[in-house]
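hey so u asked for the seq, here:
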Amino acid sequence: MKQTRYAIVRRVGLLLLAASSLALLMGAGESQEARVDYLGHQMMCVCGCNEILLECNHVGCTYSSREIDELKQMVAHGDSDKVIYAAFVKEYGPTVLAAPTTTGFNRVAWIMPFVVFGAGLAIVVFVVRTWKRRIAPRPVAGITEAPPEKLGEFRDRARKDTEL
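ran it, structure tokens below
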């Protein structure tokens, strides 16, 4: 009985050790292909197609193949993400980035959608409240609806007045 408990504890311990080792080693080394894939989806092709760099679908696009080759060389060289982004911005301009940076004036691109949404919501709330507060028109005293027998008389008179 002692031996079976020991064997069970030993197996569970080995399983836990293997699972924890596997979990730790999964993120140990990021492959170059995965990094190129990540960075390539953070940049735009500069040929004017407005596509993500790795998804440019122009047949024979010289820009995307050149950019991808540069990206692969920089990743293979071991450059950091910031260095790679800076090099691409220096060479192709800030439009090479798929999303604007969060520094300087580019913060406006991140803030303005929320400001515009808030302003639009405030305007809608203001208009709805104004409409709700409007006083409903009341019938003027002394004017009553015509009885049904007079309606026929009014219709006949309107027809006569509008005939040519």
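The chain has a mean pLDDT of 82. The longest helix spans residues 107-133.
lmk if thats what u needed
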